[in-house]
Design goal:
Elements: E1 5-15, E2 25-36, E3 41-45, H1 52-60, E4 67-72, E5 75-76, H2 82-88, E6 89-92, H3 96-99, H4 106-117, H5 122-135, H6 152-164, E7 170-174, H7 182-199, E8 202-206, H8 210-216, E9 219-224, E10 227-233, H9 234-239, H10 244-265
Parallel strand pairs: 3-8, 3-9, 6-7, 7-8
Antiparallel strand pairs: 1-2, 1-4, 4-5, 9-10
Helix pairs in contact: 4-5, 5-6, 6-7
The structure holds adenosine-5'-triphosphate.
């Protein structure tokens, strides 16, 4: 059986600030390969600038790769087939504020993907959007709300609602939990885990937090200066990191988190 996602040799280089043909190119991501199974969660970790967001964007089709291929259930994805990509792989960003249009109601924004990708009638779209709102723990009444009327946590629920609207197989979340305070973050994580159970979604989480990784990830992929240096089951990587950098990365973050927790308790 084929993997839900297979990434083969995906890489990205950028030109310098001036986009002249002779400008030197810098490598943001060296050829990277990994697989993801249905209902599985992969965490992408690494220090700042290691290429995490670049990899996430390439998988979600937000940016085009310089080389490499992506296969969804064994079928190759092409850059120009945005419809196929949009339906199956959705992305949630860190800043739900910025990804929502302040001028349009929540209902209108959730209706958009349905308008372009389904043949549902206006009334059916309306019903469907209300159903999705309830599914992510909001109310049907939120349909008429504008983004500024919602809390940060509610906006992140809307971002999740928009991501699941087309029943995708994969959701890529780029630091989607970082702006939330710990109690809201826990609620959002639980919501995402419930949706995963119910819909069989596979997640790719870009995160700096080993605590979150421990809680949700089946596998971890670690990038160092654009190079994948580990791709392993979470349990194994946390207990036997093998490489000093991996150990240091996981340990450092744990230490920082523990320190922060201690400070908050004081
Ligand atoms: N549009 C771009 N043009 C030029 N260079 C870029 C562009 N986007 C990213 N880069 C470079 O690619 C490298 C990887 O960036 P990326 O944002 O993927 O890192 P990251 O691991 O997600 O970092 P962070 O944790 O800070 O978000 C960095 O050196 C960055 O400066």
């Amino acid at each position: 059986m084929s993997h839900v996602l297979e990434v083969k040799g995906l890489s990205k280089t950028f030109r310098g600030r001036r986009d002249w043909p002779w400008s030197p190119r810098s490598v943001a991501l060296e050829p990277t390969s990994f697989t993801l199974e249905a209902g599985e969660t992969l965490a992408i970790m690494g220090e700042t600038g290691s290429g995490k967001s670049t990899l996430a964007k390439l998988v979600a089709g937000v940016d085009n790769a310089s080389s490499g291929d992506i296969y969804l259930n064994g079928q190759k994805l092409y850059d120009n087939n945005t419809k196929q990509r949009c339906q199956n792989i959705r992305m949630i960003f860190q800043d739900s504020e910025k990804s929502l249009n302040s001028q349009r109601t929540i209902g209108q924004q959730l209706e958009e993907p349905l308008l372009f990708n389904t043949s549902l009638s206006a009334a059916e779209r309306d019903d469907y959007v209300k159903k999705i709102l309830r599914k992510v723990g909001l109310l049907a009444e939120h349909y008429e709300f504008y983004p500024h009327m919602l809390s940060t946590g509610q906006k992140q629920r809307v971002a999740i609602a928009r991501a699941i609207a087309l029943e995708p197989q994969i959701i890529v979340a780029d630091e989607a939990l970082v702006a939330l305070d710990p109690s809201v973050r826990a609620q959002i994580i639980n919501l995402m885990l419930d949706l995963q159970q119910e819909m069989g979604i596979s997640y790719i989480f870009v995160t700096h937090s080993p605590q979150i990784v421990k809680h949700i990830a089946d596998k971890i992929l670690i990038l160092y200066r654009g190079k994948m240096i580990a791709f392993e089951k979470t349990e194994l990587l946390l207990t036997e990191p093998q490489q000093p950098y991996v150990e240091q990365l996981l340990h450092e973050h744990l230490t920082t988190e523990h320190l922060n927790q201690k400070r908050q308790k004081r």
